[in-house]
């Protein structure tokens, strides 16, 4: 089958059904990396088989781990208790999480590796991770432009640092902690606001002690170097960032009721659900349980009359990847939705503020762009545009959801990028009744 050059979403009849989101992307990267750093076997169940994570699987294999797919979503990683010298370049594809965490992990070992990625990843800032790693004693050589991939990381013999983050970033925190695992002394990372804590939780599951101390709205995480990880079983729940798309469609397509089962409900990831509730969304969670060290539940979204809100800036870290789909639901809401304090959106797979502003405007939605945010004035959504997605999976999925309830069809380019985080997105949405089809 040839990949279509575009996908088009058309106004759909009521969506209904139960489905499951693919495995959590953040946890999937971490399970592979910690499995490779550990001694012994790690059995992963529910791994996201998206392009970003598959790139990380190939990377840890290049660093010497055994990696084997034993069934759908089931992967076995045989760790060597550390990274070995790779004999090829480490291509992380489109994955910011993959490259930043792997750079941190590799810096702790006496290896030298060149990291690279696709055109989108090559535009993203890497000094935010490189700076602390150099401070710990690693050597980083920019092979092209400074602060950008490709970069060569030469590691080993690190010393612990105390790092205070200016923005809450789980990727930076995780890179430092993974390097700190093999550094001399106790590494600490302080965050002004709490970012997702999957690395800390998973390090504990692999046998490491991780300290956490509350500091204002944030916390200080500490890790003693020299601790050894032991392979373990990791169960990965559904990704709330992916579940957001079918749930958003349920909220905006009249008459709909959509349930996504087994969604991870870690409170550091559920800012979008909180915001939707404040907007008046009929969003219910049933079958709450703890599984694999995380809270999980079945989330149901029914079509709702939404109202605009001001999203608290302090919530940004808990929903940073969800602002594009929030903006789509805001387009159908009554009144303004104000999203500020989200300058980080500009350094994701694309400049997500400017891409959402451009896409929504092309679809006839009134949007104001600001340096660190944007404001969507909801109401009628005429649609009738082809949206440029700049290699960004979330920009593509967001506009397809918009097209399901807009007056006229909405098309997106580069649809193959959706497999970065959500392989099977189109089939899953069609299974709920969404009218999404390939187009040229
Ligand atoms: O640690 C992670 O798994 C992630 C952290 C976030 O990035 P930042 O740490 O840059 O905020 C998020 O945008 C990304 O999709 C996944
Ligand atoms: C920002 C994202 O991922 P990453 O930083 O891993 O590329 C995302 O998935 O929205």
UniProtKB/TrEMBL annotation:
What does it catalyze? 3-phosphoshikimate + phosphoenolpyruvate = 5-O-(1-carboxyvinyl)-3-phosphoshikimate + phosphate
- Broad EC category: transferase
Q: In which pathway does it act?
A: Metabolic intermediate biosynthesis; chorismate biosynthesis; chorismate from D-erythrose 4-phosphate and phosphoenolpyruvate: step 6/7
Q: Which GO terms describe its cellular component?
A: cytoplasm
Q: Where in the cell is it found?
A: Cytoplasm
Chief subcellular location equals cytoplasm
E.C. number, please? 2.5.1.19
What residues make up the catalytic site? 321
Residues given in the record as 3-phosphoshikimate binding sites: 25-26, 30, 169, 171, 321, 348
Which residues does the annotated region (Disordered) include? 1-26
Gene Ontology terms describing biological process: amino acid biosynthetic process; aromatic amino acid family biosynthetic process; chorismate biosynthetic process
Describe the location of the Enolpyruvate transferase domain by residue ranges.
12-427
| Single GO term (MF) | 3-phosphoshikimate 1-carboxyvinyltransferase activity
Q: Which keywords annotate this record?
A: Amino-acid biosynthesis, Aromatic amino acid biosynthesis, Cytoplasm, Transferase
Binding, phosphoenolpyruvate: 25, 96, 124, 171, 352, 394
Family annotation (InterPro entries): Enolpyruvate_Tfrase_dom (IPR001986), Enolpyruvate_Tfrase_sf (IPR036968), EPSP_synthase (IPR006264), EPSP_synthase_CS (IPR023193), RNA3'P_cycl/enolpyr_Trfase_a/b (IPR013792)
Question: Which SUPFAM superfamilies does the UniProt entry name for this protein?
Answer: EPT/RTPC-like (SSF55205)
Quaternary state and partners of this protein? Monomer.
Protein role: Catalyzes the transfer of the enolpyruvyl moiety of phosphoenolpyruvate (PEP) to the 5-hydroxyl of shikimate-3-phosphate (S3P) to produce enolpyruvyl shikimate-3-phosphate and inorganic phosphate.
User: What NCBIfam families does the record tag this protein with?
Assistant: aroA
Family listed: Belongs to the EPSP synthase family.
In Swiss-Prot or TrEMBL terms, this protein is called 3-phosphoshikimate 1-carboxyvinyltransferase
């Amino acid at each position: 089958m040839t990949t279509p050059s575009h996908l088009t979403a058309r106004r759909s009849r009521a969506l209904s059904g139960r489905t499951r989101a693919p495995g959590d992307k953040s946890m999937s990267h971490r399970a592979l990396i910690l499995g490779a750093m550990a001694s012994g076997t790690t059995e992963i169940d529910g791994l996201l088989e998206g392009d970003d994570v598959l790139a990380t699987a190939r990377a840890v294999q290049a660093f010497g781990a055994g990696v084997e797919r034993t069934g759908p979503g089931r992967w076995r990683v045989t760790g060597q208790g550390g990274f070995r010298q790779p004999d090829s370049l480490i291509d992380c594809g489109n994955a910011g999480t993959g490259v930043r965490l792997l750079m941190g992990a590799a810096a702790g070992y006496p290896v030298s590796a060149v990291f690279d990625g696709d055109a989108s990843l090559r535009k993203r800032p890497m000094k935010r991770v490189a700076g602390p790693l150099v401070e710990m004693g690693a050597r980083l050589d920019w092979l092209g432009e400074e602060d950008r991939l490709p970069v060569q990381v030469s590691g080993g013999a690190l010393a612990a640092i105390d790092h205070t983050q200016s923005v809450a970033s789980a990727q930076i925190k995780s890179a430092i902690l993974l390097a700190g695992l093999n550094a001399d002394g106790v590494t600490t990372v302080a965050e002004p606001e709490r970012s997702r804590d999957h690395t800390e939780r998973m390090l504990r599951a692999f046998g490491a002690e991780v300290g956490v101390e509350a500091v204002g709205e944030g916390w200080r995480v500490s890790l003693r170097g020299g601790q050894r990880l032991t392979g373990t079983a990791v169960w990965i729940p559904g990704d709330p960032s992916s579940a957001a798309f079918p749930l958003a469609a349920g909220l905006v397509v009249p008459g709909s009721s959509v349930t996504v089962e087994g969604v991870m409900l870690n409170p550091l990831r559920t800012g979008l659900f909180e915001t939707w509730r404040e907007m008046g969304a009929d969003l219910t969670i049933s079958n709450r349980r703890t599984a694999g060290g995380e809270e999980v539940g079945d989330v149901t979204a029914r079509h709702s009359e939404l109202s605009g809100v001001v999203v608290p800036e302090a919530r940004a870290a808990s929903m940073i990847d969800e602002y594009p789909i929030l903006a789509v639901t805001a387009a159908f809401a009554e009144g303004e939705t104000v999203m500020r304090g989200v300058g980080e959106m500009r350094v994701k797979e694309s400049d997500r503020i400017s891409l959402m502003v451009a896409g929504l405007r092309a679809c006839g939605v009134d949007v104001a762009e600001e340096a660190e945010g944007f404001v969507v004035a909801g109401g009628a959504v005429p649609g009738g545009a082809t949206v440029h997605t700049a290699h960004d999976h979330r920009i593509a999925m967001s506009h397809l959801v918009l097209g399901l309830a807009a007056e006229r069809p909405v098309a997106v380019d580069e649809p193959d990028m959706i497999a970065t985080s959500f392989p099977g997105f189109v089939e899953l949405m069609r299974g709920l009744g969404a009218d999404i089809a390939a187009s040229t």
